[in-house]
From TrEMBL:
Coiled coil: 126-157
Domain Response regulatory: residue ranges: 7-121
Domain of life: Bacteria
UniProt key word Mitochondrion: no
SUPFAM superfamilies linked: ATPase domain of HSP90 chaperone/DNA topoisomerase II/histidine kinase (SSF55874), CheY-like (SSF52172)
Molecular function GO labels: protein histidine kinase activity
Record-listed 4-aspartylphosphate modification sites: 56
Designated name of the protein: histidine kinase
Root EC class: transferase
Amino acid sequence: MNPPAARILYIDDDEGLRRLAARVLARKGYTITTAASGDEGVALTARERFDLVAVDHYMPGRDGLSTLEGLRALPDCPPIVYVTGSEESRIAVAALKAGAQDYVVKTVGEDFFDLLAQSFDQVLEAAALRRARDRAEEDLRASNARLEALLREVNHRVANNLQMVMAFVSMQARSVDNAAARDALHRAHQRIATIAQVNRRLYTSNDVEFVAIDEYLAALASDMGEAWSTHRTRTVTVDADAARVKTDLAVTIGLAANELVGNACKYAYPAEAEGQVRVTLRLAEAAGGNTLLTLSVEDDGQGMPPDGSVQGTGLGTRLIDALTRSRGARLAHAPVHPGQAMPGTRASLTLTLGPEDLAPAEDGLAADFQI
């Protein structure tokens, strides 16, 4: 089945040329409607659907440029080809700037209609390509929306399942008598909670690729402070640069923060003493377009052992190393108040991030921090 002929509106005040154009262009396969003035052409276009409008420049009353302006003001204006008997380039430039897709210089003879038909074909083809592109972009947006909704649902289910696992671990911890086993289960509970916090943020936001690291660490700090205050008060505070980071990177940072905060909450202060743990995250420019991320966890407690040995099993340190090794991470410890009775400890973890790890500023989701 052949496609329907393109509907063309030809606007020209010359009656003889209108009739000739209608006859010649019809032989070339178009369905032609004519209008004798700019006002009539604009009114016809407002009432009927045309695939293309051809507008003559020299017309009494409302000339071609004024008619072009009126056509462009209509909703869903069809593409426009400007026709003029003038060879002055300024008129063609003015028409193109005003929104015409092409122009043809009017001449005597059959060549004019051949050029006009060629212009029609090119403009119609370009319009069809634009419509196809717009449809493809709309389909892509709809597909992305469906995918994001599916990912949010998956993250919702994962978060619910992790909450269930956390409940099982807590039940198991309460049922064992061995202190070391209870502590191990408690630390496992916190590691699961760290991952669950990311999933909760993914299914409650409009972005499933990036996580606001400052908001995530703040929520994590609240969870950790509550979890470590069962027998003694542990206040965990956060001061983090605002940034949106890749989801997997957010999990890495969260797990590292969990291990460092856990160590500080457990070992920095005497068993029944209150204590504060401070978490900071800073971003700075680095060479090669990269970003340097520094995660610091500090306390005002009794400090590291004189020999610098790691207290506990050392599992947390090994986890941090395993999580961050590929990013050239460096973990260092130093006193917060050197020479004092309670020197405190600052554990600083430094990671190198690539441009792909941070949400780009132009996507509307970037953090206040921009490289």
